[in-house]
Structure formats: structure tokens, C-alpha cells
């Protein structure tokens, strides 16, 4: 696979490859798992994901145009349908054998287009992580996208590592006090959960502002990572004294679920599609804009740091890291990655 | 040879390395076939082509100055003459043995400077393609230059492939109807000819405008490629009913010969020197400007596409292409290239 | 060592890594001998040089902040002291074994920060070249810095090669007449000296202007290179007839010592810290500015040429040079480099 380290990607997974809003009348070029893709919509609006290389003379199909359900090569006008098969060769009646491009299974959900770049037979839509709150009018949504010039592995580390928040995000969401509180890491199949409850404490400003609790609150902050591609942070608070049950969390006056979908672009770069669901001020566009600005600034901080780490690692690869106590989640996630990589075939011949 | 794939270039050939107008009082740096060259004119105006590397401390001679017939190294002032031999070392009387740079045979014709980078003994001026119309006052000239970040092989493909015109050039010279008309490909030594006659049809707008025929015309469009470096398109029209003879073509009221001289710069980039000869409005500078703008826009379209193909091929080399009917000329040209590459020594030690 | 050719650097040497004025409250990232370094000052103002890579997750410490005597990692807040040992890990009491970065011996002198990147046990401050005139109020100082995208070896060549002055610096300090005068090259341990006396000649304009001699002068110009990192040019003049003794030179009405400290950044780039000491107009800021502008322009000329040579050598490495008479100093210096490289261990494990 060009531009990628062999065996570095988990292919059998639904990966977000575009925001739904990106797919208009023009084809879109996008790279995922080192594979150059072209995305387009058929006349009926269905998203299509094909390899972005005409089998005739290697022109990128993404430089061509959409004609009904087909994409048309910009060089000699060959038509390829959603299944990747050539449907027309101008100037001749016969379609040459082998005139097709690989087509990938597609799902569109959560305002995102997902593709399955591994073994097509295993592309079960039920494997896409379910988010019941998405689309529920009880929740407001903010969203955005970041490109990281960094390996997805280092970004995953970051997502099960609350300890970095104090230092990397002290200008945005960090909190000096949090640095010294013990944090639990739990592993469950391909899921890693890291987090804690902070009980009987004054509400943090954002909770105070939107939920206006009477006194002290119990608040939770849990980081979930479904390896290798879905991350979410569940943050909320309710009055101190209420039992810590899922039902009580569901009724909490303040709760934010912050999702990120990660897709390795190459071994050294990653797409990062994110959105938040909030149960406060759900229809207020000003609050949506405020959330988007806050999370954009926060992820910019991660981006600056992780891109610097990437450059350091590229200059001198293969240095074994010293580990510290807050790496519990990282150790678990790396074990899951190794297990997934060992247990499946590579993303497949193209 | 630095920067080049071994065996990828045909050395024994006159290659255009500069427009005559580029060679003024300052030396010119240019790379051809992966070899860094310096070009300059002697006091008498003769073009000289030498390797652009002083044998003393590797300074590029192109950063130096011309002194009479010699070029002077910018570092220590060593003089090299048109034959590449060191003629002077400041501060010492003796010229060290080995103090010379390789000099290349040169020809200046058609407003271009040609160099022979292969075996010097075979550099016969008669091997340069003859263009009798060039300089004839019955023909007007337009000209220009394009740099392609693309292998010369893919550009050559394009030059014996009229089928691409419909799709790549639909904003300039393309014609939807042409896509479905059969085209003949003929091979003759190192020459490939592809094209056709379209008989008894209304004149295309440009013919109508300049030749004002009484009724329908027969028009021809033939693509010639003298492998590996000279391409021309012969396009013209005359009244329907006239016999298709070379003499009749020579007397046609509208005819344009569009020439391109290709020189591989590296394995992945190409110099493209072009000019048109036209038998209409030969002295009209407005028509010259119009032709230059039209061909510039047309070659810009080729450039955008072929540079994209180059990037695709570099990301994943060695993919065998599917072939279609319009590839007849391409197949012939690739055979000729293989024959030329097999039948001669590499461009030579430097 | 990343980014460097093995064995290409002499490690046991005091190398200038920053101007003192560059080290303020923020850490400074700098690469020397292919090693990424972070420089900072302790609360007491002492310069510290550490490797710029946290042993935990490879973040560059230079993106962090200084806290008292320590530098704080931007990722998880680990503290490292001037000795490179981790002094604190937020969230845990135990410091993991191996949690340290390499620390390098430091000296600050001549307005520069020097680091010893080789074997620390050999880092004797007495090995730093002594400059008695520096800081003496009888001398005025001008200074600057150049970055060269060129191997330090080619820059060293240039510094024992007065012959290049005529050609490279003819717009600044060059002199056509000098090209043909014989020059002596002397080797003494790690020192190469190249230069000459020009006796009983009219004073050059700058000497005329500042020293106003009565008639002809004897002037000297000697290039010293203490391999591999210190270069100086001793230029001065006094009335013809005075004996050529060090004492007479010390009393000369015009004398300039132009120093350069070279530090390989990578195998293909070099830091070049320079200053001049002059015994005329020592307190005149206009003359300081004039000197700085003159030397900046002169080194810009060297930079343009040496960067071009670097590009030529990279395109086709391993070409053996033709030698000329003025290469006497170069031959000596290359012998010393070979001796130093052979006689010591590489810069050391990191």
C-alpha cells in the first residue's frame, strides 16, 4: 500500500472519510489508510467511494465529473458506476475485461460518510458504533474537523490520557487541580474507559452557568475509546447526594458527549472528525458556535503538540518510551491495537 | 546519472534545451536527461552547452560569467572554453590534467538550441527533424514553452492519442462529436502517425473565419510523433471534391502545423518547446497572440492532467494499465521507445 | 544519529550553539551535530543544554516552559533539571528509572553559548580557544549570525582559501590584484594558517580612512583555522619600514580580527556565529553598524556560493575534485579532520 507502513492499519472497521456536507455535485479526493479514494453522490444522492485511479491511464477520477450514477474519467471519458465497474468506453462498444476500480462499502450516519476499506464481506453496518442521542431533539450538536500531521497511534494515546489536559490544555479546558487525582482505566473488548467521579465539589463555571445547581455537585468525566476509530468523552454533573446510576446521569441537568472519529490518512497523518452532543441550550446557535470555538481551540492545542511529537519520532524512530502512572489507558489501547492487527488480514489487495 | 532512472532516456537525439531568445549575456542553467547543463554564447554568438559543475570544487559554472569565448567559475575564476577544457587557472601557469568539463554538440535552429547528450560521434546535424516551412515567409509563427512535472513517456502517449481531446480539451479545442470516429495509427521507422480525414462537413469555426470556403469542406487532422522528441499536428481543410493529395494540402486555404519539441528534464519532468506555423494571417500579430493564447490554454489542460497522472504513478508504481481501442498509437510508440533504448548505449559517462 | 552521516562530526569540541542574547525566559530549540537540543537559563541565569526529547512520549521540551531551574515538558508536566534528571512527575511520587534526558557541558563566553556534545569527561573549558582581546575596552565589537545550507567541510575549505576572495567577494572585500600573489600555508597541530604580507604598498581605502598613514604601508592578512570550529582572519597595516614582529602588530594603527565559530547543524547545514574585534573607532556605533553590514554582505556571498556547491554535491556525490595550487590550506585541513575523526569515539550514545 503506497505511502504507508505495512501492517500499521486495521482495515476491518468503519472509518469516517468525509463529512456528509462535503459531498456535493463535484467529486471529492480523499486518502484513507494510504489509499487514494474518490467520493461522489449518485443522482439519487447515495454516497459512493471508489479508488481514485482510472485503470486505463492512471488519471485520478476525482478530476472528472459525475454523470448520473457514474463518475467519468477526465482523460478519455470512461464511465465507472457505484460498483466500480466500467459502464462505458467512448469510441468502442466492448468494455475491456479488468476495466474496473475497487469500490468500498459505504454507510452515511451522524453527518459523516463511513467507508470499509478492509474485507468487504465483513462490512456489517451493525459494527458502526451506535449513538442513540444523535438526531434526538433533546440534544444540541456542534461539529468540526481537524487534520493532524501525526500518526493515529499517538492521537489514540492522547484520547485515553486525561493527564495531558492539565498541561496541553491549560489555556482552554485544563485544570491544575486535576493533575494529582487518581484515574481508573478499564478495558472491555475493544473498548478502553478511563475516568473518574469528583464528588461534593463546587460546580465548574460552565456547569454553574447552564445548570445553576443549588450547591455542590458530583461530576463525572469519562474517556471512552473504541479502538481504533471512535472516541468520546462523557462529562456531566448533578446535585451531590444523588446515586451514581446511568439513569441519574441520563437525567443530569448538564451533560456533554464529545465524539471524535479518527481515520488514518497515511502512517503519519490522520483525519479527525468531531462533534459534541449537549443537553443544554440545544437550539441556541450562539451556544453551538461557542462549543465549536472551544473544541476547535482545544484540538488545535493537541494538534500542535502531537505534530511536534510526530516530527521528533520521525527524526529518530524506535526509541522505547519511559512509562509513568497515567499511561494505564495507553498500555491497554496498544495491546488492543496489536491484537486487532495480528488477528486480521491487511486492508486487502486493490 | 543523478536524479534519473537508469536506461530511461534515449541519449542519441537532438534535444531542444533552450529557446534561442533565452541565451543572452548571462549563462543559463538547465537540466536535460538528468544532467545539469550550463548554456552560454561565445563572443561571436555561438551557443555552447557544458556540464554545469566545475571539476575543482563543484561550483555551478552557471553562477559565473562569460568572458569572451569562455565561462568563468564563480569560485576561483577558472576559465573553460567551448570545448570544455580549462584555459586558465588564476594564480598558476600550469593547467592541471583533468581540469575540464564535458562539452556537448550543439545546433541552433527553429528559434531553439539543440544539444546532443549521447555519444558525440553520432551527433549528425542531418538527424534533426527538417521543417521546410519554418522561416518561409508564407507561414506565420506563434510559440511558447511549458514545463511538465511529468514523465516524457506519458506526454508522448498523449501526443498520439487524439481521443483525449474530447475530454481534456473540451474547454479549448475539443469536440464532442469526434469521440466516436475511428482513427488510424501508422508506424514508419521511428515515426508514428495517427489521424483521419473528415469529408464533406461544414467548416469548423476557425476555418470558416480565416478561409471562408463556399460550402462543405474535407478536413484532415494528423498527429505525427518522431520518437522520442518531435511531435507535430497537421490540420487543414479545403473544398469538398478536391483529391486528397499532398499537393492539394499544400495549396489548402487553411493549414496549421503545430510542433512540439520534448526534452526529458528528469525521469519525472519534461521541457516542452512548441510553435505553430500557419498559412493564414501570417503577418498579423493579433492572430499570433490569439494562437499563442489558445495553445497555451490547451497545453495547460494537458499539463494539469498529466501532472496528476504522474503523482498517481509515483504513489504506486508498476501498475499494468488496461488498454482500450484508442491506444493503438500508444502501443506503437512504446515499442519504438523500447527498441531505441535497447539499441544504444546510455547517454554516456560524464 | 538522526539526519547525519555517521562519523562525519568531531564530537569532542566546544561548539557555539547560540548567541547569549538568544537565551531569554523561553526555551530555545537548536540542532547541532544532528542532535536536537533545548537551551534555557536557570533562575540564576546559567545556560543549560539538554536533548530536546522527553523520554516519556517524545514531546520536544523546547515547547514547554522553564520553572526555576527546571524545564517542564509540555505534554505531562515532567520536570527536568540542568543535569537532565527528572525531578518531578505530576500525579505520582516515584520518579521512574531512566526518566532523564542527556545533559551537555556548557560554557558561556564571547557572547556565545558553547556546548560539548562529545565525551563529557573530556569537556575541559581550557580547550575553548582563548581570545584575549574580547572584552578588552581597546577593541570594538561587531557581530552576527549566518545559517548555511552547506556542509561544514566546504565552509572550512573556504576559510583557508584566500584565493576565492577575488571572485566570490569582488562586490565586497575582493581585490583583483590579489589573485596572482603566492600565499603560504602552515600547519601546527589542529591549526592551519594561510596568508601573506604585502609590503610597501599604498594603503587600501579602509586603512587610509581610519589610520591615515603618512605614506606606504606593510599590511598583513592571515587566515587561521583551528579545526574544526574556530576561524579568524587577522588583518592590519603599519608604516613601511617597521619590523614585522607581534609587538609591532599589537601597536598597529589599524587592525581587525574577524572571528567565526562554526557548528555543524546536520551533515548538510552549519551554524556560523561571527564577530569582529577592531582597534579603530571602538565606541562608534555607526562604525559597528558599518562593519556588521559589510561582513553580512560578504558572508551572504559565501552562503550563496557554498549552498550552490552543496546542491551540486548532493545531486551527484562522490566526484573526486581536481586540485589547484591555492588548495594548500584545504589539503592540510582535510588531513586534520581525518585525524580528529579517526582518533576519537563518535559524539556518544544519547
Mean pLDDT of chain A: 91
- Largest sheet report of chain A: 7 strands, antiparallel
CATH architecture of the largest domain in chain A: Alpha-Beta Complex
- Please give the count of helices of chain A: 6
Determine the CATH superfamily of the largest domain in chain A: Naphthalene 1,2-dioxygenase Alpha Subunit, Chain A, domain 1
Helix fraction of chain A by DSSP (H/I, runs of at least 4): 10-25%
Enter the CATH topology name of the largest domain in chain A.
Answer: Naphthalene 1,2-dioxygenase Alpha Subunit, Chain A, domain 1
Query: For the largest beta sheet of chain A, what order do the strands appear in spatially?
Result: 12-18-17-16-15-14-13
Number of domains of chain A: 2
Question: What is the CATH level 1 assignment of the largest domain in chain A?
Answer: Alpha Beta
Tell me how many strands of chain A there are.
18
Largest interface: A-B, 26 and 27 residues
Question: N- to C-terminal separation of chain A?
Answer: 9 Å
**How would you classify the helix and strand content of chain A by structural class?**
alpha+beta
pLDDT < 50 stretches of chain A: 1-6, 346-350
Portion in strands of chain A:
25-35%
Rg of chain A, Cα atoms, Å: 22 Å
**Overall 3D shape of chain A:** globular
Structure description:
- The structure is a homotrimer of 350-residue chains.
- Chain A has 350 residues and is an alpha+beta fold.
- Chain A folds into two domains: 14-126, Rieske Iron-sulfur Protein (3-layer Sandwich), CATH 2.102.10.10; 129-342, Naphthalene 1,2-dioxygenase Alpha Subunit, Chain A, domain 1 (Alpha-Beta Complex), CATH 3.90.380.10.
- In chain A, 20% of the residues lie in helices and 32% in strands.
- Chain A has a seven-stranded antiparallel beta sheet with strand order 12-18-17-16-15-14-13. A four-stranded antiparallel beta sheet of chain A has the order 2-3-4-9, with no helix packed on it.
- In chain A, a hairpin with a 2-residue loop joins strand 17 (254-266) and strand 18.
- The first copy, chain A, is globular and about 80 Å long.
- Mean pLDDT of chain A is 91; it is low at 1-6 and 346-350.
- Chains in contact: A-B, A-C, B-C.
- The interface between A and B is medium-sized, with 26 and 27 residues.
Amino acid at each position: 500500500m503506497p505511502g504507508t507502513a505495512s501492517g500499521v492499519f486495521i482495515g476491518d472497521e468503519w472509518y469516517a472519510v468525509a463529512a456528509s456536507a462535503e459531498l456535493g455535485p463535484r467529486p471529492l479526493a480523499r486518502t484513507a489508510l494510504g489509499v487514494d479514494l474518490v467520493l461522489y453522490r449518485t443522482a439519487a444522492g447515495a454516497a459512493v467511494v471508489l479508488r481514485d485511479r482510472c485503470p486505463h491511464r492512471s488519471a485520478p477520477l476525482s478530476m472528472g465529473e459525475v454523470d448520473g450514477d457514474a463518475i467519468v474519467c477526465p482523460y478519455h471519458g470512461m464511465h465507472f458506476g457505484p460498483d466500480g465497474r466500467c459502464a462505458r468506453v467512448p469510441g468502442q462498444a466492448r468494455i475491456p475485461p479488468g476495466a474496473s476500480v475497487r469500490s468500498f462499502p459505504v454507510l452515511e450516519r451522524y453527518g459523516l460518510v463511513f467507508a470499509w476499506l478492509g474485507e468487504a464481506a465483513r462490512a456489517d453496518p451493525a459494527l458502526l458504533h451506535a449513538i442513540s442521542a444523535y438526531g434526538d431533539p433533546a440534544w444540541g450538536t456542534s461539529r468540526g474537523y481537524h487534520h493532524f500531521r501525526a500518526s493515529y497511534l499517538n492521537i489514540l494515546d492522547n484520547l485515553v490520557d486525561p493527564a495531558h489536559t492539565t498541561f496541553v490544555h491549560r489555556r482552554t479546558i485544563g485544570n491544575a487541580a486535576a493533575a494529582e487525582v487518581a484515574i481508573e482505566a478499564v478495558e472491555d473488548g475493544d473498548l478502553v474507559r478511563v475516568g473518574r467521579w469528583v464528588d461534593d465539589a463546587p460546580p465548574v463555571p460552565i456547569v454553574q452557568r447552564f445548570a445553576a445547581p443549588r450547591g455542590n455537585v458530583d461530576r463525572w468525566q469519562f474517556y471512552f475509546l473504541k479502538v481504533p476509530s471512535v472516541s468520546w468523552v462523557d462529562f456531566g454533573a448533578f446535585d451531590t447526594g444523588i446515586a451514581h446510576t446511568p439513569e441519574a446521569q441520563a437525567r443530569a441537568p448538564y451533560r456533554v458527549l464529545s465524539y471524535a472519529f479518527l481515520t488514518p490518512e497515511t502512517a503519519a497523518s490522520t483525519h479527525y472528525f468531531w462533534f459534541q452532543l449537549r443537553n443544554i441550550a440545544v437550539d441556541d446557535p450562539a451556544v453551538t458556535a461557542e462549543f465549536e470555538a472551544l473544541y476547535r481551540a482545544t484540538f488545535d492545542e493537541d494538534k500542535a503538540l502531537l505534530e511536534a511529537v510526530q516530527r521528533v519520532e520521525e527524526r529518530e524512530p524506535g526509541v522505547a518510551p519511559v512509562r509513568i502512572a497515567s499511561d494505564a489507558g495507553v498500555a491497554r489501547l496498544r495491546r488492543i491495537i496489536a491484537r486487532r492487527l495480528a488477528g486480521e488480514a491487511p486492508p486487502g489487495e486493490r
